Amino acid sequence: MGYLVNRCARVLTQTLARALAPLDLAVAQFMVLQQLWVAEDLTQRDLVERLDIEQATMGNTLGRMERDGLITRRPHPTDGRAQIIVPSERAMQLKDQALEAAASVNDLASSRLSTTRQKQLKAMLEGIILEVRKADAL
């Protein structure tokens, strides 16, 4: 089962990468932007926790995103060590197209499933993640 879930994730990620390529967005950048588009005042630590990514990996991703003009950083109002990550104007202009690209990949992936089955699959995958994390924490 683990192999199939991993393979499925890789196929979906590769398909999403091709869909985002015309926008000059990498999948990792899109994942970060998805969070920034819906929540304000996120720090690097917040993004690490939300996306379950290593701190160093997130730091490298944010560095590339800043270099590419996708984000800016501003001082945190209460924590002198932290910075708030903000999507740039360029990132905001890409939002609708990027979300449409991701939706098209999701639609393709779920095209053979009824709405009920899609909800069931989502619930099952979320349940697997919770159970494995819980067992791994022991």
TrEMBL record:
GO terms for molecular function: DNA binding; DNA-binding transcription factor activity. Keywords: DNA-binding, Transcription, Transcription regulation. SMART domains: HTH_MARR. The keyword Lipid metabolism does not apply. Residues 1-130 form the HTH marR-type domain. Pfam families: MarR (PF01047). It comes from the Bacteria. The keyword Secreted does not apply. PANTHER family: TRANSCRIPTIONAL REGULATOR, MARR, TRANSCRIPTIONAL REPRESSOR OF EMRAB OPERON. This is HTH marR-type domain-containing protein. It comes from Neoasaia chiangmaiensis.
